[in-house]
Amino acid sequence: KNQVEQSPQSLIILEGKNCTLQCNYTVSPFSNLRWYKQDTGRGPVSLTIMTFSENTKSNGRYTATLDADTKQSSLHITASQLSDSASYICVVTSGTYKYIFGTGTRLKVLA
Amino acid sequence: EAGVVQSPRYKIIEKKQPVAFWCNPISGHNTLYWYLQNLGQGPELLIRYENEEAVDDSQLPKDRFSAERLKGVDSTLKIQPAELGDSAVYLCASSLKTGYWQENTGELFFGEGSRLTVL
Q1: Interface contact A7, partner B, CB < 8 A
Q2: Helix, strand, coil percent content, chain B, rounded in steps of 5
Q3: Is the Cβ of A35 closer than 8 Å to some Cβ of chain B?
């Protein structure tokens, strides 16, 4: 069964600190993996996309990694800001346009 | 360029009443999705359209839910009658499916969602 699991479920950090969110997947066939950010009351917005051949990709203070052998991905947030408070959802695309969503990690950044 | 537009943003109804949600996808996007999202959970697919054809509606509870996408652009999702358990956020998303599949295609663009509360 295709599954995407994320950890931790929730996380509280102080502004300026770094954090890492984890995503483990069992999806076949694998096409790509995306991290989405979802602000409260808003729709998800794509942060990064990782294809099978990519190991690391950065988008500003966000850095995503992918280990296709262990089927793990991480999203590292550097120097967190209050505006980073949101849910972060890992989404794996299987085949053509079949999306498997994780349940998300809810991040709260405190001043 | 306008994003995916959904309405209404919020809807409160009593159980057994009907409700409808509307979605206007990004111009030119041929694939449209309706997702249901419960609090603290990831989105769950209800139905996927390619142009005006519903190509995956296996997760749509057809006894009370219906959807249409006339002319392959706007879409409407209807619930009749609504039940207490239908309280959730209904997300619409669109993407562009081309004839050539590349690994880095298929980004979903989501609307703001329609939050339904059934009393």
Answers
A1: no
A2: 5, 45, 50
A3: no
Query: Could you give phi then psi for residue B86, rounded to 5 degrees?
Result: -85, -10
Q: Do B107 and A49 touch (CB under 8 A)?
A: yes
With a cut of 80, say whether residue B83 has pLDDT above it.
Answer: yes
Task: Report the residue from B41, B104, B115 with minimal CB separation from A32.
Answer: B104
Those residues whose C-beta lies under 8 Å from the C-beta of residue A71, and which sit 6 or more positions away, are A24, A25, A26, A27, A30
Euclidean distance between the first and the last CA atom of chain A, given in angstroms as a whole number: 41
DSSP string, A27-68: -SSEEEEEEEEE-TTS--EEEEEEETT-SEEEETTEEEEEET
Q: What is the pLDDT of residues A24-60, one digit of tens each?
A: 999 988 989 999 999 999 999 999 988 888 899 999 9
Are A46 and B107 within 8 A, CB to CB?
A: yes
Distance from CA of A16 to the nearest CA of B (A): 25
pLDDT digits (tens, 9 = 90+) for B17-42: 999 999 999 998 989 999 999 998 99
State whether A44 and B43 contact (CB < 8 Å).
Answer: yes
Q: How far apart are CA B61 and CA B19, in angstroms?
A: 15
B108 to A51: CB separation less than 8 angstroms, yes or no: no
* Bridge partners, B115 (sequence order): B10, B89
